[in-house]
## 1
Amino acid sequence: MIFVDQRKILMIECEWKKEGRVQINPDGQVYPCCYLCNPHYRFLLGFKSNLTHKEHKDEHTQHIWDEYNDNKEKFNINNRSLEEILNDKWFTETLPKSWESEDTALVQCIEHCTVDKKDE
Ligand code: SF4
């Protein structure tokens, strides 16, 4: 459970993971989805893209992007197989663990993939 809002029980369910999809850019860079790819790609191009949007969340979420950036070459299809990339700690632990709380999740994950468990 990520958070309770009045009578709602909200959780993050990774839409792309559920559908078995990932984003592979023309340069070979692999992302879990387009929602994370787009702001990060602008960031890499040097645009003042805000990766987390909410300043107060930076201290909780910056490590997610730091870890991705530190291993960026390893997440490129030109350097490793897709299977190896998707089995990497960043894809199997770091990102999924961030979905456990609203405080630790990336704002894109909250905005695009929050579901109300009571609606199911
Ligand atoms: S925004 Fe986050 S939770 Fe949603 S599909 Fe992308 S990685 Fe998964």
Note: Residues 31 and 61 are 16 Å apart (CA to CA).
## 2
Amino acid sequence: MKIVVLGIDALEYDLVEEWDLKNLKQRAYTKTDLSDFDIIVTPLIWGSMLTGQKLKEMEEIWRKRKKFFSQQRDVRVKQKQYWYARIASKVLPERVKKFLIKKFVPDPFGVTSNYLVNNPKYKTIFDYFEGTWNNGIPSYGRNVADQKIKKISEMAAEGNPKPLYDYAMNLYRKEKAMLLDAVKRDYQLIFWYTPFLDKIEHFYWRKKLKLLNIYMELNRLVEEVKTLLDEKDILYIISDHGMKESPSKTISGEHSDHGFFSSSTGELIKKPQQLFDIIVEKAKNPR
Ligand SMILES: [Zn+2]
């Protein structure tokens, strides 16, 4: 028996539903509840899927940065700010604020991109199986905001989203080929992760036709993977969060407060961290 997880960053439940994408929906599908997370950022949620836990110390790293200046995006719980930050955030220009944050607060994406790799404090789903494959997951060998991505994201925020779009689509094509190759091999657990949709949705959220094409491509990808699987194999599809319209001037989409989950077995989970439980349970009681 083989378990395949397709981790699609920012796959939005409401769009899968609106366009009735049957392959993505599988036998059972649901919204996941993110109310355990005060800050909805990508690595925290993927890390929770891999360990079954909310990673408190990792969350602290984001809190620190949010606290530094009043960046309220992604933060649901109002928190006390340092008094000097409160004053500074009112009087300093954006550019200076960005510079100070970069200089004095560690880049949370960089610091946490390998947080769970060989971390003696946490067991991940990969510790429960013999042969496993993954292509790098936020908190487990992937930085979704490295220097290059930051640069093209800044260009997108300044009105030129094309380089980011091209980068994301190229990465998707490359990693899709890696996935199809891995599924043909003899692994017990395959965890494929793709960040491309999150990158695109932030800037193309109002371009619904473009998004429809991408969602249909993902729907076809599921079919392709399925043809490579046996009847007894298991396929889970999961996203950390979705996307919704943003009032911001520089982006059109921001993270929504729920994720997506579907299974070929009919199983459902309520929270992202429960993915760990249903996968580890299969290692303990193989069918
Ligand atoms: Zn994400």
Note: Strands lie at 3-8, 28-33, 132-134, 137-138, 141-142, 189-194, 234-238, 243-245, 253-255, 258-263.
